[in-house]
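user: Please supply your own:

assistant:
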Amino acid sequence: MKFRTKDQDGAKPYIDYSLIFITLFLVAFGLVMVYSTSSYDASMSVLTNNDPAYYLKKQAAASVFGFVLMAVFGIIPYNTWEKVSGMAYAVSAILILLVLTPLGYEANGARRWLRLGISIQPAEIAKLAMIIFVAGLICKLKDDINTRKGMIIVLAPPALICLLVWQITDNLSSAIIIFGISFVMLFIASRDYKKFAIFAAAAAALAALLVYAITKAAGSNKFGFRGDRVLAWLDPEAYASGKGFQTLQALYAIGSGGIFGKGLGQSIQKQGFLPEAQNDMIFSVICEELGLFGGISIVLLFALLLWRLMIIATNATDLYGALLVVGVMAHISIQVVLNIAVVTNTVPNTGISLPFISYGGSSIMFLLIEIGLVNSVARKIRF
């Protein structure tokens, strides 16, 4: 297939049906797995009115609303967002600050949500806002992003949002993802990769030193619950009754699934053993019920999704459109990698959902909005 960036007689807008189909499949599969993982706990809890389909209904409503938003954002010309990129940044910062007001509320021991007619997590809005803002900022700076000053100018605003997300909502994982999105976008747009290699090496060394310091301070509670998570990551069996409990149950689920799994709906770990299975640990239940085959199939679907995004990014008609798609690619890929890494105990346990599949209304809505942005970029391609 040959793409062209200029209108020609008879040229039609490009619609990536593969991208749309994969997105639809992932969301539909996510609804099935949300019901499978949550129905037992929901039927036993008065908080959900003993309704086994409680979480499914909420996720389905958010998904339908998300598809409507995806269609709307797919129609709106994507260049519109470049004009309001500064406003998007300001709105995301204000919404994070509003968590401190009576509009914010606490759930599962964390104050991270807002009541604005519907329940919204400002960190999810910040991820979308950073994609829009950083893409616009890079386009304004142009070749200056290859200088040290330009790199600082691009990364400083997202770093401030990351700090707000971390300190106000106590959500370090979302802060890491937001900075990761911005970093990847700048990396793709830059010509000088040496600075990024040095930065990555320094970050890895700092992480190693931090892990070493936590192990040396074991038992002192100097690093709080995050330090306990690192210790549980290094030796989950030693913390089986505490921070290592969820990780061990996830590993039991993955190991017991075998090659083809126990069958859809047949998970044992979801029956009160694996806390909040429908959220961050849903991949472990997928592996238990559908086996290694099911887990690898989902990973391959995400790989296909990222490939379609790459096709659109490389054929976008301008830099801003390409960077929007790169931002969406970065967001999805970072969350998929980190979620699976957490479930398999490759990295310390932290709250990161599996895109399109884990339970979470804000997450599914804003992910679908991002796919809408990608569709808007694709519509400008001519073939």
Notes: The chain has one domain: 17-379. Residues 17-379 form one domain.
